[in-house]
Specification:
homodimer, 196 residues, alpha/beta, Helicase, Ruva Protein, domain 3, two-stranded antiparallel ribbon, 6 strands, DNA recombination (chains A, B), metal-binding (chains A, B), DNA damage (chains A, B)
């Protein structure tokens, strides 16, 4: 492939995408060059536009093109409840349920000391400030239910409670539609403890 | 994710890459926005540059930024042997062996009537012209050894032989380093027939 430098540069650039190795990058580059030049130009423009214009919401820290995102500005939202999630994808999942009408705070990560991600990197100080605005009555921790997400929830919970805030966590239990026989034991144990 | 249009456009643009679904596209977009804006800009520039400057070599049909690629222009190459491959990736694999010093013709595809890819789409006419330049003595068919690659090799072979050209095919046989016990039976059968 030494015959074309532009193609080699493109393959190397595609490898910076998460989960894309050298074979996938080659396949993507050849596909775009052979079958979808318009797609290549569209992706080029979209990347440039997003890199220039997308930044963090000043209130909830999610991605937005404005100073404050449309969710934070929505007067229909219940400002007394603040839901803390790890990523915009998690926020999107919660939004799609239609079951939550409060506001969000997006950590843009989770505590992971081994990767050098501490309280500062996930914006703990900013969350404290946001949750202490006098309007927020309840902080709902919706970090993931894996080791790092649970650790993050624990640290946030301690910090928020020390400010006298009411902190809750999404319920753990048996997923809807599942049969007990096939549910893992620690989930059943949690569902037993948290029975209502 | 409705809060930011630029991000939504980027996710849709990423989905045009082969093998990228909506989850992967989201993950890629968030990764670039959160951790690698420079990568997003680099990929944007590389895509635009490649889409503008990469086209097909006038002689061998591979990707190049010049009119004729560096391989075709190399005077050290043995112009009497022409190797026909499906893609630049296949050409690259052959080049890395260091065992072939002739020239190439890249089909940029394979015969696949169900997908509407016929002799015209793989440049059969162009290959005929290229192989009939009076210098080429032998055409080596190095299409893949799957059904479509074999069918392509058959069609090309018939057409080239009708022009009186000497046509050969890469040898089928037992891969280097393999144990017979684990080699599939049709490969062993072919290796028996083609024994030397």
């Amino acid at each position: 492939m030494s015959s074309t430098n532009a193609l080699e540069v493109l393959i190397q650039a595609l490898r910076r995408l998460p989960g894309v190795g050298v074979k996938s990058a080659q396949r993507m580059a050849f596909h775009l060059m052979q079958h979808d030049r318009a797609g290549a130009e569209a992706l080029s423009a979209a990347l440039h536009d997003a890199a220039q214009n997308v930044h963090h919401c000043a209130r909830c820290h999610t991605f937005t093109e404005d100073d404050i995102c449309s969710t934070c500005l929505d007067p229909e939202r219940d400002a007394s409840r603040l839901c803390v999630v790890e990523t915009p994808a998690d926020q999107s999942a919660l939004e799609r349920t239609g079951a939550f009408k409060g506001l969000y705070f997006v950590l843009m990560g989770r505590l992971s000391p081994l990767d050098g991600i501490g309280p500062k990197e996930i914006g703990l100080h900013k969350l404290m400030e946001r949750a202490s605005d006098g309007v927020v009555q309840e902080v709902i921790l919706a970090t993931n239910f894996n080791a790092e997400g649970e650790a993050t929830a624990h640290v946030l919970s301690e910090a928020l409670k020390s400010r006298g805030l009411h902190v809750t966590r999404l319920a753990r239990g048996v997923p809807v539609g599942s049969e007990l026989e096939y549910v893992d034991l620690s989930t059943i144990a949690h569902a037993l403890v948290d029975r209502r």
